[in-house]
Amino acid sequence: QLQLVESGGGLVQPGGSLRLSCAASGFTLDEYAIGWFRQAPGKEREGVLCTYPRDTSIYYTDSVKGRFTISRDKAKNTVYLQMNSLKPEDTAVYFCAADPRTYYSSSYNCGEGHRYLEVWGQGTLVTVSS
Q1: Is 75 exposed, middle or buried, given 0-12, 13-18 or 19+ CB atoms closer than 10 A?
Q2: In which element (H, E) is residue 10 found?
Q3: 11 pLDDT band (50/70/90 cuts)?
Q4: Tell me: the pLDDT tens digits for 69-89?
């Protein structure tokens, strides 16, 4: 069974940082296209960051460029989303997703292609508030 489990969400003050984790089981995360998404109350799901094996082509949505980065721990089969300089508008449930098809662009996977990604986690809530 292919599974993703996110963790690391919580309450943080504006300007603070959080690191979200996405742990995979049943498959090797490093061989899959990966995406981080978020959904704020009343809004559509938004692609935040999408990448490929070896992070050869990383797409960032404009609002997180320079603030969010991805990293990996192959031994733990886990990817991380480091979020710095957090803003109240970053408040959302964050999801990670993975797909074995690596021939679509990262921007596609973060855009209209996100609905076709095969494996999704359950989400973790990030609240940015003072």
Answers
A1: exposed
A2: strand 10-12
A3: very high
A4: 999 999 999 999 999 999 999
